[in-house]
Hints:
Largest sheet: 3 strands, antiparallel
Number of domains: 1
Strand content: 15-25%
Shape: elongated
Structural class: alpha+beta
Distance between the termini: 15 Å
Number of strands: 3
Mean pLDDT: 86
Order of helices and strands: EEEHH
Helix content: 25-40%
Amino acid sequence: MPEEIIYRAEFFKEGDVYVGFCPELNVSSFGNDIEDAKRSLQEAVEAFVETCEEMGTLEEVLEEKEWAKIFGSSV
């Protein structure tokens, strides 16, 4: 079963670009419009999580951020 990552995202305009920011993971990205910024932030969060998994630090990072992994949830 694929895992789902649910995170808070903030978006704002900075100059000519839109910036997306996930404060809990301290991950950000940008795009030419809000939809580009959303896609770009999603890719950045996924890359962050994949890198943590590859390094074997994902559980530690998520616990440090006080996130929990929920198994079999229908939320």
